[in-house]
Amino acid sequence: MKLIILGSGTSIPHPERASPSIALFIDDQFLLLDIGPGTLRQLAIAGLQFENIDYICISHFHPDHTADLIHFFFATRYPPILSKRKPFTILAPKGFNHFLTLLKRPYGNWLDLPDRLMRIEELTIGEKERKEFDKFKITSAPLNHTTQSIGFRIEDSSGKTIVYSGDT
């Protein structure tokens, strides 16, 4: 398990801190925890390719945790990227599909991706929920920041664990 803090700042721009985002590697799986403004740039600075992301975990729907979704979808549509992009999953609180519909509205089809590419798993709000994947297990749990806030406990096959709480 390898963790890279891409940003730990707030919604207020600061020259020494980027908005919230963490890159987490578990074996060959690339997880992104939140995707605040500038995350794709922070990935590039860290030498990481955004098109290799397997999972995006969203803690809540505030812009400082989700704003680079717009950039992510738009950049993914770029033909040289799209042609080699493998499918990815977004894990987010219940209501994400509606949030995404509203987010896309001003951009028309510029943020649309082929159905085969993106899977969305909405996680239960207000109670713990556990999902098991090939290389890791993830448990979401409610947090106090907003009514839709969730935290993540991620455990790899060897038992190593990290917990991410977003703003709480």
Question: How many structural units, i.e. domains?
Answer: 1
Indicate the structural class: alpha/beta
CATH class: Alpha Beta
How many beta-strand runs? Answer: 10
Strand order of the largest sheet: 1-2-3-4-5-6
Q: What fold name stands as the CATH topology?
A: Metallo-beta-lactamase, Chain A
Number of helices: 5
Multimeric status of the protein: single chain
Shape: globular
- The fourth-level CATH homologous superfamily is Ribonuclease Z/Hydroxyacylglutathione hydrolase-like
What is the ordering of alpha helices and beta strands?
A: EEEHEHHHEHEEEEE
Alpha-carbon Rg, integer: 15 Å
**Estimated helix fraction:** 10-25%
Average pLDDT for all residues: 95
Give the CA-CA distance, first to last residue: 23 Å
Largest sheet: 6 strands, mixed
Which blocks of ≥5 consecutive residues have pLDDT under 50? none
Provide the β-strand percentage band. Answer: 25-35%
Task: Describe this entry's structure for a reader.
- The chain is an alpha/beta fold and 168 residues long.
- The chain has a single domain (2-124), classed as 4-Layer Sandwich (Metallo-beta-lactamase, Chain A), CATH 3.60.15.
- It has helices at 39-45, 63-66, 68-76, 79-82, 96-104; strands at 2-7, 21-26, 29-33, 55-57, 88-93, 118-123, 129-132, 136-142, 150-156, 161-164.
- The protein has a 6-stranded mixed sheet with strand order 1-2-3-4-5-6. A 4-stranded antiparallel sheet has the order 7-8-9-10, with no helix packed on it.
- A hairpin with a 3-residue loop joins β7 and β8 (136-142).
- 31% of the residues are buried.
- The mean pLDDT is 95.
